[in-house]
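Give me the fold.
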Amino acid sequence: MATINKLKDTAFRSIKPTEAEQLLADGGGLFVRVRSIKDGGAVSFRLAYRIEKKQKWLTVGTYPTMSLKEAREARDLHKSNLKEGRDPALDKQLEKQRQHNMQLAEKAENAKQQARMTVNSLFDHWEKIYLCNRKDKGKEIRRMFEKDVLPHIGTMAVEDVRKSHIVTITDLMLSRGIKRMVKMVLKLVRQMFRFAQEKDIVENDPTSSIRVANVGGKAVVRTRHLTDAEMRALTLQMPSARLLKTTECAIWLMLSTCCRIGELCQAQWKDLDLDAGTWSIPAENSKNTLPHTIYLSDFAKAQFLKLVTLKQSDVWIYPNKDNTNHVCIKSITKQVGDRQIPVDRERLSGRSKHGEALKLDGGKWTPHDLRRTGATTMGNLSTSSDVIEKCLNHKEENEMKKTYQHQSLVSEQKKAWKVLGERLELLTTNHANNVVVANFIESNS
């Protein structure tokens, strides 16, 4: 039998609070409760019902959040549940608890999501704990990651990164033709995720099933070095390349001292003692963090003397434009590379107009190839490999030698640089093409 509703909508809307509380019956146990004026006059809907022989009251809702129509629908639902033996008050309490539990779960999930470390945050943490121990404090690795890694996965949660995300990064790099760099970046990404595993930030390393050897093909070890004929050609081609005079000196210094490009770019005048004929490379400028002394040949000393006449800074041998620091390490490499661009290649703005001035028969060469050339020339002049390794400031890889042999071979190094300088002097003079050096086997020409 349908419940007869006693209150009309017009009568309900015209209800006003009075000095006393009002309880107006609507039918089926539903009442409209109107609080007194002194209590604020709030209007609510209450349901009177009996269960287990007990009279109970339940506040169904408040007006205007709940309309009279909605209150009646709630009354009918509760009465239906009563027939099944369910207590509306207990149902409301359980629903309230359920809503509360849902809110707690949602809050916990939000906290969990916020606590999940992103790849950006992981890199910052890795940089702070691990990369800070590198000589450059991780600046070069940050540059590589900001260019090729973080734009793609930086905002992702570390635990959400999958193999497919890493492969996308390597594929994009390979499409630019940088095979050697993609292997280096993959190794660094792997180091970062293994760091995350060690710190219990993530359980799995998404790079673990990617073989570095399979990315971009087999790595090619660079062996490029200049032959004697190319060094003679370089002497003749240098003027037309219109290089900075300081860059010309840098090329001959890298050949005659076998130094690294970074070591030369960061050199300071205080490291140089032309009277003693030495150039001291401090540990912080050395790739392997080992201090190194180069004993200058007359050829190398002549290049430094030219730089003295071109001196632009009291601190840096190769200063930047503002004389506030050393020149960018990539500067000389760029100048050399810009002068070996084939004529049929598109030339970017800002590049040298002398595109093939430094092109040599053996193919493209870089400043680091000059270091290799100097070492090879030493070997061709009968300098022992142990002495050459000392001149290159390489760390000893043989554990037994590293433990028991600590000889400096200073006199042998001096001789090695001296004969190298003499050979370069012969190759770079105008009559070099007619020079014949006795007992010299030109094995690399």
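DSSP finds 17 helices and seven strands in the chain.
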